[in-house]
Specification:
The complex is a heterodimer of chains A (124) and B (383). In chain A, 36% of the residues lie in helices and 19% in strands. With 124 residues, chain A is an alpha/beta fold. Chain A has a five-stranded parallel sheet, with helices on both faces. With 383 residues, chain B is α+β, with helices and mostly antiparallel strands. Chain B is 63% helix and 12% strand. The longest helix of chain B has 70 residues. The C terminus of chain B is likely disordered. The chains are: A alpha/beta (124), B alpha+beta (383). At the A-B interface, helix 1 of A face helix 3 and helix 4 of B.
């Protein structure tokens, strides 16, 4: 079973994403900010990161920058309320494997996660 | 020569002298008539006639001299006045020319234009008034610019902030729908209404965001060589889900020679979806909607034509303006934001193209946009 780490500063959205991903057969970990993202990844390497671009304390982008510098290479998708990577100030120097906008199109999200993790996802 | 004043005096003396001469002559003539004056009286009569002639000669010379003098005086006076006037004109002309110049620059949009205040008090007042007006205009323009920027920022932020709660509402409604087997028919209908309204809100947010970007000059397109035929085909097939639902016939007629064009595919898709959605929503059940694409000269023209109720001329004029919507009329489906055509127009123009509409009430509407081919595009794309 593949593990996905979801980071968002909204508990409601974390609950929503956790429910949809668990229904689709993933193990889910959550983080409320960039700092927690770094901690979770160090504890247990998830197979994929699903990061909100804007979070308090430390943004998803900053956390990703640190993780990439430390050699972590798992696929990363950015979830943003902005409509394009340009608007979300997504860095061009960091490898990002997917960009998804809010409101979330879960069918697309789940199919991209399945592709990126190589999981035989049971569509929920 | 004599002065005018003296001439008037002389003229008076002349009249007196003439009168006196007549009196002397009359006195002499009386003596002659009485036979008491003798030769002396006759001589006086003759002398007085000659004396008056001399007087008249004298006065006519004086009159001529005076006339010359008066004329010369007049000429000198006029010349002086002219000189004075042209001096005045010169001192008016420079500041006036400056003002005309400055007004031109101001009208041309250079609101920092000011004139040097100086010269006659009238032109100085005019200059100061002009500067005050220009200052006021500049202040208002900068306030308007700031308000525009605030408005754009506000729309961008609001549309961003509204997305999180909307994500939750839509997401949890979808979750409920995943378990529709456990819901009653009424509950399913209720959840569907929530979802429909979420979709409408998302469209509204996206449209508002596009317009705010367009206003802020931040709406941009990333052109890539794109095959139009598959793109149009895909949109038409997707839209059939909606048109089939109301027994409308959606057909396409694509020129087999359709070339590759430099466009942003997502944006062209957005325009097409807008146009087909409008045709669908404003036409009754069973209507026909035809999508056509062909090459005309240096352009590709894509048209969406329906045989719906048509648009009255008064509405057609404003059809590409924001929040202008046709009457729902025969259908209850109209769920648009009133922004679709305004955005489509911005997008077509960003591609260097044009969009237009014509319509006949009772027989249908046609919306067409043209995109420039920009020369022969390479057939093979770089992989």
């Amino acid at each position: 079973m593949k593990t996905v780490l979801i980071a968002d500063d909204s508990e409601t959205i974390l609950l929503l994403m956790r429910t949809r991903l668990e229904l689709a057969g993933y193990m889910v970990q959550t983080a409320a900010d960039g700092q927690e993202v770094t901690e979770r990844v160090l504890e247990s390497e998830p197979d994929l990161l699903l990061l909100d671009a804007m979070m308090p304390r430390k943004s998803g982008i900053e956390a990703l920058r640190e993780l990439r510098a430390a050699g972590y290479e798992m696929p990363v998708m950015i979830v943003s309320a902005h409509q394009t990577p340009g608007d979300a100030d997504a860095p061009t120097d960091l490898e990002i494997d997917g960009f998804i906008t809010k409101p979330i199109d879960f069918e697309r999200l789940l199919s991209e996660i399945a592709t990126l993790t190589g999981a035989e996802a049971t569509q929920g | 020569m004599i002065g005018v004043g003296r001439f008037i005096q002389k003229r008076q003396d002349f009249e007196d002298a003439i009168a006196r001469s007549y009196q002397v002559e009359m006195a002499a003539r009386v003596k002659v008539a009485q036979g008491t004056g003798g030769l002396a009286a006759r001589r006086v009569v003759r002398e007085q006639a000659t004396h008056r002639e001399d007087l008249r000669d004298q006065i006519s010379n004086d009159t001529r001299d005076t006339a010359i003098l008066v004329a010369a005086g007049l000429i000198a006076g006029l010349t002086g006045a002219l000189l004075l006037f042209s001096g005045l004109l010169a001192s008016l002309r420079r500041p006036l020319e400056d003002l005309v110049d400055a007004a031109g620059r101001l009208a041309g949009g250079d609101l920092s234009t000011r004139v040097a205040v100086g010269g006659l008090s009238e032109t100085a007042t005019l200059g100061a008034a002009f500067n005050e007006m220009a200052g006021q205009l500049e202040l208002e323009a900068s306030q308007r610019e700031m308000l525009d920027r605030l408005k754009d920022e506000f729309v961008l932020t609001a549309s961003h902030e509204l997305r999180s709660p909307l994500t939750s509402v839509q997401g949890f409604a979808e979750l409920l729908m995943l378990e529709r087997d456990t819901l009653t028919a009424n509950q399913v209908e209720t959840v569907q209404i929530i979802l429909d309204n979420c979709n409408h809100l998302v469209r509204l947010l996206n449209d508002l965001l596009d317009l705010a970007r367009s206003d802020a000059g931040r709406l941009s397109v990333r052109m890539r060589p794109t095959e139009l035929a598959p793109l149009i085909d895909e949109v038409v097939r997707t839209m059939r889900a909606q048109t089939d639902g109301s027994q409308q016939v959606l057909t396409e007629e694509l020129d087999p020679q359709l070339p590759t064009v430099e466009v942003e595919a997502d944006r062209i898709r957005q325009i097409l979806v807008n146009l087909i959605t409008n045709a669908h929503e404003y036409s009754p059940e069973g209507a026909s909607i035809e999508v056509k694409a062909r090459v005309i000269g240096d352009d590709v023209e894509v048209s969406v034509t329906d045989d719906g109720p048509g648009i009255p001329e008064t509405q057609l004029e404003h059809i590409f303006e924001r929040f202008v919507r046709g009457d729902a009329g025969l259908t209850q489906r109209v769920g648009g934001t009133g922004l679709g055509l305004a955005i489509s127009k911005s997008l077509v123009e960003l591609h260097g193209g044009t969009i237009e509409a014509d319509s006949t009430v009772g027989s249908g509407s046609s919306f067409r946009f043209r995109l420039p081919l920009k020369g022969p595009a390479p057939v093979a794309e770089a992989s």
